[in-house]
Amino acid sequence: MIGEYMFTGRGAAEIAASIEQAIGQGTLAPGAVLPPLRALAVDLGVNPNTVAAAYRLLRNRGVIETAGRRGSRVRPRPATTTREQIRLDVPPGVRDVSHGNPDPALLPPLGEALAEAAARHARRPMLYGGVPVDEELGRLARAAFDADRIPGGPVGLASGSLDAMERALVAHLRPGDAVAVEDPGWGSLFDLVPALGLRPVPVGVDDDGPLPDDVGKALEQGVRALVVTCRGQNPTGATVSAARARELRAILADHSQVLVIDDDHVHGLTELPLHPLADSTRHWMLIRSTAKAYGPDLRLAVFTGDPLTVDRVRGRYRLGPGWVSHLLQHTVAHLWETGAVDTAAVSEAYAARRDGLVQALADRGITAHGRSGMNVWVPVPDETGAVARLLHAGWAVAPGARYRLSSPPGIRVTVSPLTQDDVPALADAIADAMRPCAVGRLG
Question: Residues 6 or more apart from 315 whose CB is under 8 A from it?
C-alpha cells in the first residue's frame, strides 16, 4: 500500500496490472518508491517470488526501475504515465524555451502540397494491395541518400524516427539485450529501450559525437545495438565529425554483429556534412525524419539499411499499420521536389540563435554546447535550482534529468522561440541562476 492506494492481485500479472493502473491514473507518480517485495507479499498474502515476478514484468515493460538495495521505484517516464505528469508546467508570462519544437515561421506552408496530394488521390487512390512506398518518394529519398554517399539499400517508411528505431531494435534484439545510447541523449529513446525489455548502456558524448573509449567499453560489455545521432544531437547539438566517424568505424570493425542505427533527424535544416556509421557492421539503419524541417505533424520518416534489416522492418509494418499514408507520402514528395525548405536559410537562422546564445554565455564565463540543431546544452552545478531560478526569472528551460542516465547535470534550451534581442536577457538569467559557481564540461 502507498498512501491511499491498495495494491491487489494474487498472481504476478494481476499485481503488475494493479501497479500499472495506479501509475496510469496518476495515483503513483514518477519516482515513487514501491513497497519492498516481501512487505507487499505479506500484504497480499502471496509468495515473495510472485511479487518478484510482478516487479520483473514491470521492469521489462519499462514501467519501474530497480536500484539495488534502494529498492524499486516508478521510472521518471514510465510507459504507462500520462504525459501531463511529465511535462513542465509553464506559468502565464513565462517564456517557454523548453519544448524542443521547431520555429513555425521556418516551416514550409503545406497548402499546395496537401492540395496536390489530394488531387493525386482523386486520380488514383491508394487501396489495399498497393505498393507501400510511393515510387516518387522512394526515388527522391534514395537520391538524397546517394548524395550523402549512404550505401545502397532499399528504402522503407515509418511514422517518425522513434517508430523506425523501435522496429529495427525489435527486428534484431531480444528482451534483456543491451543497447548503447548517447548520454546526454534523447529522452524518448531512454524511455523506449526499457519499454522493449532492453537495457540502456550510457555512452558519453562531446561536440564531435559519441566518445570512442565509451563505445569500445560498451561493445566489450556485449551491447547488441548502438544508436548514434549524426547531426543536431538532442540535447547537446553534437555532430559526428569525419575523424570521430573513422574512429568509431574502426572500433565497430571488430563487432560486425552489432546493429548500428544512425539518426539524422535534422536533415533539411542543417548544412553541416553528414558522417554516418552506416555499413560499418553487418546490420545497420539510417533514419531521416520530416518532423524538424517540415513539421512535427508530418508523421513520416524514411530509412535505408542492409536488406535483411529493412525487409524485417517493412514486413512487420505490413502486419500492423500496413503502410504510411500515401497522402502524407505525396505531400512530402511534393515538398522535396519543389524545394519547399531553403536548407541554407533555415540552417543559418537556427545557427544565428544557437551560436549567439553560446557566445553570450561564453562572454559571461559559462561554457555551453550546440554545434547544430535547435538546442543548447548548458552544464550546471545544481539542475533543480537552476530550473527553479530561471522559472522565477521568467524563463522555462528543460531539466537535464530528462536527457541523462549517468552524465552530470545540465539544462536544455530550445532556441526556436528566440530572437537576437532575447539572447542577452536569457544569457544574463542563466548566469544569475548558476551563481555562485558555474561549470562547463559536457559530461
Answer: none
End-to-end CA distance of the chain: 39
Phi, psi of 227 (to 5 degrees): -110, 125
Strands 398-399 and 375-379: unpaired
User: CA dihedral in degrees (180, 182, 188, 191; nearest 10)?
Assistant: 40
Instruction: Dump the DSSP string for 240-302.
Output: --HHHHHHHHHHHTT-TTSEEEEE-TTTTS--SPP---TTSSSEEEEEEESHHHH-TTS--EE
Q: Is the dihedral of CA 248, 176, 288, 284 positive or negative?
A: positive
Q: Nearest Cα to 302, choosing from 171, 134, 104, 179?
A: 134
Contact at 8 Å (CB) between 286 and 310?
no
Give the side-chain half-sphere CA count within 13 A for 1: 7
Residues 144-200: pLDDT tens digits?
A: 999 999 999 999 999 999 999 999 999 999 988 999 999 999 999 998 998 888 989
What single-letter DSSP state applies at residue 2?
B
Q: Is 172 helix (H, G, I), strand (E, B) or coil?
A: helix
Give the separation between CA 231 and CA 2, rounded to whole angstroms. Answer: 44
Closest CA to 168 of 320, 317, 326, 323: 317
* 328: nearest Cα among 161, 167, 113: 113
CA 296 to chain centroid: 13
Going across the sheet that includes 155-158, the strands are: 155-158, 301-305, 283-289, 259-263, 225-229, 178-183, 199-206, 209-210
Q: What is the DSSP letter of 93?
A: T
Please state, in angstroms and rounded to a whole number, the distance separating the CA atoms of residues 20 and 58. 8
C-alpha cell at 412: 536544455
CA distances, 140 to each of 104, 130, 317, 414 (Å)? 25, 19, 21, 30
Q: What is the pTM of this model?
A: 0.85
Asked, as a colleague might, if the bond just before 436 is cis with ω within 30 of 0, I would say yes
Q: What is the pLDDT of residues 400-431, one digit of tens each?
A: 988 999 999 999 999 999 999 999 999 999 99
